[in-house]
Every structure is written in C-alpha cells, then in structure tokens.
C-alpha cells in the first residue's frame, strides 16, 4: 500500500480495547508516519488526539498507569458523576495537570482531525473538529467517548451528544466522502468478528425525550456488522489496509486488568511497527515523506 496525500487514517472505538490502537499509533509516531486526515470515534478519538499532538506513550499512560493509580472506571463514578468513567479526572485533571496535553501542537498540526459524535436529537452522526478552543476540543472528545446508558450526554455547540459509535463505529465511509480513496483502518476486534444476537426496540422510558436516539440504538448491532462487512470488502479490493489484534482478545470494553491491557498495547505496538517496516520494504514510505 502507498501512503500519500489521498490516504486517510480511520480509528475505531471499543472502550479499553483502544489500548491496541494506542500501541499502533505509538509505533507510527516512532516511525514518523503521519496522515493528512484522521477520523476517529470514541476511544479512537482519545487516542487520536495524542497522536495528532505528537505525544508518544501519552495514551498508554492514561489507559494503563493512570487507571491503575486512580481507578477511574467504577460504578461509584456513575452514581456520583453520571458516568462510569471519571469525567473530572479524564477531561480536566489529566489534560491540564497529570498528563498535560499539548494543545499548541494539536491545533497547529497539518492533519485534519475529525471526531465522531452522535447527535441525540437527530440520531445522526456528526463529524467535528476544533483548531482553536481548548474546552470545545475536550467537550467533543468526551462526547465521542460517552457510552450510552452509563454516561451523561455532553453538550457541544448547544446540542446533546453521545458516543459516535452508536451510529458510525468505523467511519471509513466518512473518510472516503472527504476524498481519501485509500485508508488505513485500525480495528479493535479480531478478523472475522461479528456481533451476535439481535437488535431490539428500545423501551420508551429510556431516553424518552430522544426518540431518534432510541431508533439509532435499536439498529446498532446491524449497523456495526454492516460496517465490518464493508471494511472487509474494501480490504479485499485493496483500498483499505486493516490493522487489528491477531491474538484472541481478552480485554473487555470496560476492562480494569492492567496486565491484560499491557499485553494488548504491546501487541498493537508490534503490529504498528511491522506495518511501518513493510511500507519501507515496499518503497512507499521513508520517515514522514510519502510517495506522491
């Protein structure tokens, strides 16, 4: 595959399975591999911010060391703050105090970076970016990562938003619509994975003020499996190159076992490094200079 100015990078979510993505992106930073366009959702958006700000290992530290130290996944946070992931720690203390985020580099990056959110009023995906406002950028990434049922809605531009993965878990079609005809897609599930079971109608008393959101939630499984089928089709056609876990997954969406997380991160790091070596072998990539 040739990485050029028509190649996008697509980052799936997956909660704590996103440590795989953070490993791949750390390998990309180590090898100076950049893309003109990145579109990311949920955990992918969190990891993507540290990639665009060029801060290696920052996502790993936040996903593993900080989890072990601060225990930021807990029903306690859901009861007290309305979110199972401690929002004060993740979107206030981490970026400003504990693991300072490089907003200047992020805003000055030549990469176009979009984060996927679900508009709770319309039930549709929106693709948002921010180049100046620190708080708005944090609001967008928080909204993109706010899982339904266990997170409060996040207001962005006066609109209630939730996890972008409700509607668009693997936004490869978005990348293509923006003119990126080839895409590297980082997935957080093994090859051949499909969600099992059936979609079901969301009861009226859940999100009672948001009927279109309930419709989107009631179609979530079918939509995700359809996206997986599209990605595999594009992969066979050669317009998409997928990087995904190769070992059987042992990490859940809300995983607290840091040893399991460390193993998945290391797998992502190895797979990302191997991909960069393949690019050099194919003669399509040297540092951040790409074949045009």
Overview of this protein structure:
Helices cover 44% and strands 15% of the residues. Strand 3 (112-119) and strand 4 (124-128) form a beta hairpin. It is globular. It has helices spanning 19-30, 43-52, 58-70, 75-81, 87-98, 103-108, 134-144, 172-177, 211-218, 220-237, 258-282; strands at 7-11, 37-41, 112-119, 124-128, 154-156, 159-163, 182-186, 240-243, 285-286, 289-290. Strands 1, 2, 3, 4, 5, 6, 7 and 8 form an eight-stranded mixed beta sheet that branches. It has a two-stranded antiparallel ribbon with strand order 9-10. The longest helix has 25 residues, at 258-282. It is of the alpha/beta class and 292 residues long.
How would you sum up this structure in a few lines?
The protein has 292 residues and is an alpha/beta fold. It has eleven helices and ten strands. Strands 1, 2, 3, 4, 5, 6, 7 and 8 form an eight-stranded mixed β-sheet that branches. The protein has a two-stranded antiparallel ribbon with strand order 9-10.
Q: Which overall shape is indicated by the principal axes computed on the Cα atoms?
A: globular
What does the largest sheet look like?
8 strands, mixed
C-alpha end-to-end distance: 12 Å
| Order of H and E elements | EHEHHHHHEEHEEHEHHEHEE
Task: Please state roughly what percent of the residues sit in beta strands, choosing from under 5%, 5-15%, 15-25%, 25-35%, 35-45% or over 45%.
Answer: 15-25%
By secondary-structure content and strand pairing, the structural class works out as alpha/beta
Quickly count the helices.
11
Q: How much helix is in the residues?
A: 40-55%
The count of strands amounts to: 10
The radius of gyration is 18 Å
Low-confidence stretches: 286-292
Average pLDDT, all residues: 93
């Amino acid at each position: 595959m040739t990485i050029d100015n028509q190649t996008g990078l697509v980052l799936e979510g997956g909660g704590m399975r996103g440590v795989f993505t953070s490993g791949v992106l750390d390998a990309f930073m180590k090898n100076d591999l950049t893309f003109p366009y990145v579109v990311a959702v949920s955990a992918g958006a969190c990891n993507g911010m540290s990639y665009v700000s060029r801060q290696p290992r920052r996502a790993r530290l936040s996903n593993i060391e900080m989890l072990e130290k601060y225990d930021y996944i807990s029903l306690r946070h859901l009861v007290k703050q309305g979110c199972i992931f401690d929002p004060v720690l993740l979107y206030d203390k981490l970026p400003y105090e504990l693991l300072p985020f490089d907003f200047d580099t992020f805003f000055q990056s030549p990469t176009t970076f979009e984060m996927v959110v679900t508009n709770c009023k319309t039930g549709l995906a929106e693709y948002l970016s921010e180049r100046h406002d620190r708080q708005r950028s944090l609001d967008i990434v928080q909204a993109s990562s706010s899982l339904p049922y266990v997170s409060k809605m996040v207001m962005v531009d006066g609109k209630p938003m939730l996890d972008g993965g409700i509607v668009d878990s693997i936004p490869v079609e978005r990348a293509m619509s923006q003119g990126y005809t080839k895409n590297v897609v980082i997935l957080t599930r093994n090859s051949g994975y499909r969600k099992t079971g059936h979609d079901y109608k969301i009861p009226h008393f859940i999100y009672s003020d948001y009927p279109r959101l309930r419709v989107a939630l009631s179609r979530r499984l079918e939509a995700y499996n359809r996206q997986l089928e599209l990605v595999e089709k594009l992969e066979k056609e050669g317009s998409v190159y997928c990087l995904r876990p190769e070992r059987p997954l042992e990490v859940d969406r809300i995983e607290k076992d840091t040893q399991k997380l460390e193993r998945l991160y290391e797998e992502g790091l190895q797979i990302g490094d191997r991909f960069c070596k393949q690019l050099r072998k194919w003669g399509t990539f040297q540092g951040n200079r790409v074949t045009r």
